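Workshop exercise sheet. Pairs work together: one partner reads the sequence aloud, the other fills in the structure field after running the prediction. Swap roles for the next sheet.
Pair: D.N. / O.F.
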Amino acid sequence: MKRLLSIFAFITVCLGASAQVGELRNNVAIGVNGGYNLSSVDFSPTIKQGLQPGYTGGFTLRYTTEKYFSLICAAQLEVNFAQRGWNEFIDDGSNNAYSRTTNYIEIPFFAHIGWGKEDRGMQFFVNAGPQIGLFLNDNEYYGFTEEYPWNPNKRPNNIIQQYGKEIENKLEYGITGGLGMELKTGVGNFIIEGRYFFGLSDMYGNSKADPFGRSANTTITGKITYLIDILK
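Structure field:
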């Protein structure tokens, strides 16, 4: 939580400081976004994992406040549906498989810094800021056959408490950031971006009596966005 508050303070200070010396802007753009997630969960004790695929999409609002030398400064807010989860790598000879898809409503708030063409042409940018999420529901997949029945007792690290365990903490928070390119045209702005989300909160309880000391989401996202300027 201290890290999250520090990020909020950093964004507020940066935007406030630059607004005092930059060329003021009052531009508002809205649009839609969609993309693909590759997720895992940072467990302690460790669970071997691959990346769990999923989809994400939602709405984007961006408010450009100023141009500071060659930098274009803005604040960006999104409301997205996001599929996350984890996909276990089970190598105990059981031929079992397990994955879980977790669905969230996520709300990232970015400090958006761009450089390049302000009107028509290409612009590069960096996004960084805090993100909160609300857990909606999940789906578990158990992979086994009649020949190789489900047998979690063979797990070499004996970590089996996650199977069937409900998500206990519905609200999550973390930090997210990304790099991207934006093509500004007369019919709207077309954006390609790569992001990384690092969860600071845990899905499960993390007291000494709980099985996991950490259980936080991490996600790599590839995303496209289309924005229309409604105030410029």
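Discussion prompt: The chain has a mean pLDDT of 92. What would you look at next?
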